[in-house]
Write a structure and sequence with these properties.
This protein is α+β, with helices and mostly antiparallel strands and about 400 residues long. It contains 13 helices and 20 strands. About 35% of the residues lie in helices and about 25% in strands. The protein is globular. The protein starts with a strand and ends in a 5-residue tail after the last helix. Bound molecules: adenosine-5-diphosphoribose and P-hydroxybenzoic acid (PHB). The site of P-hydroxybenzoic acid has 11 residues, from strand 15.
Length: about 400
Amino acid sequence: MKTQVAIIGGGPAGLLLGHLLRAEGVDCIVLERQSGDHVLSRIRAGVLEQVTVGLMERLGLDARMKAEGLPHGGFNLADGERLIRIDVAGLTGQSVMVYGQTELTRDLMEAAPARALEVIYQVSDVALHEIDGDAPYVTYTCDGQARRVDARIVVGCDGFHGPSRRAIPEQVGRGFERVYPFGWLGILADVPPCNHELIYANHERGFALASMRSATRSRYYIDVPLTERIEDWPDDRIWDELAVRLGPDAAAHITRGPAIEKSIAPLRSFVFEPMRHGSLLLCGDAAHIVPPTGAKGLNLAASDVHYAAQALIALFRHGDGDAVAGYSGKALARVWKSERFSWSLTKLMHRFPEDGPFERRMQVAELDYIASSEAAQRAIAENYVGLPV
Ligand code: APR
Ligand code: PHB
């Protein structure tokens, strides 16, 4: 088979890119290792920046998001005693959209057939070849048959564990990583949220986050040592810890209920440079990972896809290869600024094992400064809604 763009990975990045290219008449195919149901089964954050909302609007796939999503004009930081509301809409003129990543992926997935976006699921043995030249190809197995796709460009949207980043020669690429000494224990429950906006809390006992999927479905997190096992955390123990860490006002409004899902996930910051090598571009988690503090993962994938689509449309519609050549530098400039925000908010809102009483006082002082400074709140707000693309 021959196409213009071979996309590896059918998660949010791969599907979003595939739709944007097809909408401009660029031939592409998406190769996905899992089944569609498996892709939809992943529980992920759902705070969408304007760049992500804008891409769905551009594709005309925003109807359900606008009908079911929750526009949020602010969020809260908590220090164990009070809520510090960051008036995002008032400070930036923009808001974020709370809409589960699963639902965004579902909207993209369901629209693919009608828009002639070919997604092949349950492929295996994906391998990239000749990415240094202008005629790369991808081999893979599907239904027991060995197959090959010849393309002009390959885009790796295959997440942190996919093969694309590893296809870039070691002497060319370099990773930058910070692994955090704690994980997030998350619980999903069909109960109303304790607050109409998100609350990120730094309590003496540790971090907590109160989030949501809808007015009737809540998503909460607490940070736990990496040695913790989910089996040791019955629902009531989680609800008790959340009530303490979120503070008395929020605790008074927590509705408890059985966990639909609960799990512990590690946190890391990671960036791989470059995000392009020869005819291979990397988008999303294939190139970078952010800690979930600030909910930047999906939104960074969206800005990568925005730049990649812009470059590939210029190449295939206008014969202009400059944007492809400049893709990595452009994408990385925004990636590093989002990495900085996610890292700084993680440092501010979590207790690190090596921290002593002085470091705790620094966190309390910084939260106190934020509470008293519009300039500090504006800086946080403009990062939270997403820096310009
Ligand atoms: N062959 C084909 N597909 C693969 C392979 C492979 N060898 N390896 C991984 N994949 C698929 C995965 O099954 C997954 O569906 O690539 C997809 C990558 O999707 P994500 O991990 O969701 O990454 P991305 O699309 O970049 O989205 C980034 O969404 O999942 C969240 O935490 C993530 O918030 C971040 C955002
Ligand atoms: C979520 O709703 O899952 C969520 C929200 C904000 C975050 C992380 C996760 O920073």
